[in-house]
Specification:
The complex is a heterodimer of chains A (about 350) and B (about 120). Chain A has eleven helices and eleven strands. Chain A has about 350 residues and is α+β, with helices and mostly antiparallel strands. The chains are: A alpha+beta (about 350), B mainly alpha (about 120).
Chain lengths: ~350, ~120
């Protein structure tokens, strides 16, 4: 630890010949860099706050948007992002243990803890890649209704509730139905809505109509027609309250859902998110800030992992042992803790509040 | 050019060394901070998932609590993990004061601006 507690007179401290801060030039410059970088992130998060605060439309709710786990079906609100936070905190701990080992000139300890830190960084980057891919892919897609309609929905206790949808209101599909719909569109299949079902007839790419009676036709038999129950969700990502009643994630099925499907406004269907449109929010800034803030943070993590890897290799080769101190570990440690620090704020302001 | 991180100078942190016994104590402190950070995060997740958002006093209080807990976590990271708590007072001030000054002003002006934009949106749309 730096802790120079001995009393030094001001004249002596600032009179030259020694560092008034009691730290080396490199470490001081790392601190200055971190202050300026923190202002960049502070500016980004404040800009996000301004847009969110100034929005007249409802902002999506973190625990309703981020509730998926890889390979699992169902609702696990915020669990994945909590896991990412935990991974980053743990890799911050291994980093500070590497610094501590450096202060004891313990080469083996530094190598061990730096190694764990690099691994933790890679795991976080992988988690973020999955998070992005899931965010871009979407959870079923949504669209706007054209004319105002009144539908009967089911709340979470399976109680029927009548909902009036204004023109332009956003509705969403469940992931089962939405993904089937999306893939059918991609393949150019025929999509039909009837009897409360989504009926997908796969596109036939070869013409073999004239062989109708031929045994040949069997080889070209069209793939089976697929049917999916219509499942529309109201207030999937936003919250809504009426008379003290929670109106989130209302399910509309069957004939009522068919009414909504037939009322789809043209060119409003969107799956997932990109820089032009997104299914999560009316405000495109929601997706843009997600990409920019978590992307900029992820870029910092990538830099941190690369720098950590270099320092790890230098420690393995005994560079610091020969130099007589492990201060470089401390400097990159500052950067790595800063990355963790930024994530703590992103986590609060993007996912929790 | 002389590299100051290679100079042996007693006033620099590069010679900050500690013994094995001190290392045990320091590690114990670090594990405790790890436990605190983990517990606070778990608590935040629990609050976020358990309490429904409804714009009432309860939710507003929880939002405020999130921000306070975030600042607590940030303080632990900066003061313990980044060792700023062990540095000289003048370095602490040089890092924290300019940042606090700028960011508080930015947050104030940002929220004020946001409120005004929301007012315009609600009035003229």
């Amino acid at each position: 630890m730096a802790g120079q507690a001995q009393a030094v007179s001001k004249d002596q401290l600032w009179g030259g010949g020694q560092s008034p801060f009691g730290i080396s030039y490199g470490k001081m410059m790392m601190w200055y860099f971190l202050v300026s970088d923190a202002l960049t992130f502070g500016g980004l998060l404040t800009a996000y706050g301004v847009i969110r605060h100034g929005s007249a439309d409802l902002w999506p709710v973190g625990e309703q948007v981020f509730e998926a786990l890889p390979g699992l079906h169902g609702s696990y609100p915020l669990i994945y992002v909590a896991l990412m936070t935990f991974i980053l905190i743990i890799s911050s701990v291994t980093m500070v243990l590497a610094v501590e080992a450096g202060h004891r000139m313990d080469k083996k300890g530094v190598i061990k803890w730096m190694g764990y830190t690099v691994v933790g960084g890679f795991i976080f980057l992988g988690s973020q890649a999955w998070e992005w891919s899931h965010f871009i892919h979407g959870s079923g897609g949504g669209f706007q209704v054209n004319a105002p309609i009144t539908v009967s929905a089911m709340d979470e206790q399976n109680q029927p509730i009548t909902m009036e949808l204004t023109g332009g209101a956003w509705v969403h599909m469940t992931s089962d139905m939405g993904h089937a719909y999306e893939h059918a569109l991609e393949h150019g299949d025929h999509i039909e809505v009837s009897n409360g079902k989504l009926i997908i007839t796969p596109a036939v790419h070869e013409t073999h109509g004239e062989h109708g009676n031929d045994a040949h036709a069997d080889a070209h038999a069209a793939p089976a027609v697929q049917e999916f129950p219509l499942e529309i969700v109201l207030n999937k990502y936003t919250l809504d309250h009426k008379d003290g009643k929670d109106l989130r994630k209302l399910m509309v099925t069957g004939a009522e859902a068919e009414k909504i499907m037939n009322d789809m406004a043209s060119n409003t269907l969107v799956f997932g998110a990109n820089l032009q449109k997104n299914e999560y929010a009316v405000q495109q800034q929601y997706a843009n800030f997600f990409f920019f803030i978590t992307g900029f943070h992820g870029f910092h993590v990538l830099q941190g992992v690369i720098i950590n890897l270099i320092i790890f290799l230098m420690a393995v080769r005994g560079v610091f042992e020969r130099r007589g101190h492990y201060e470089m570990v401390e400097k990159v440690g500052l950067f790595w803790h800063f990355v963790d620090l930024v994530w703590v704020f992103v986590f609060t302001f993007y996912y929790l509040v | 050019m002389e590299r100051d991180d290679l100079i042996v100078n007693d006033s620099y942190s590069i010679n900050a060394r500690h013994s094995e016994e001190d290392g045990v104590k320091i590690r114990k402190k670090l594990y405790m901070v790890t436990a605190i950070l983990t517990l606070v995060t778990v608590f935040e997740i629990f609050m976020g998932v358990y309490f429904k958002r409804n714009g009432t006093f309860t939710w507003e209080t929880i939002k405020l609590l999130f921000i306070v807990l975030t600042l607590v976590k940030a303080a632990y990271i900066v003061l313990i993990f980044m060792h700023l708590g062990d540095e000289r007072k003048n370095l602490k001030y040089v890092v924290l004061l300019p940042y606090a000054l700028f960011i508080l002003y930015l947050i104030f002006i940002g929220l004020y601006e946001g409120l005004s934009v929301q007012h315009l949106n609600n009035t003229f749309r």
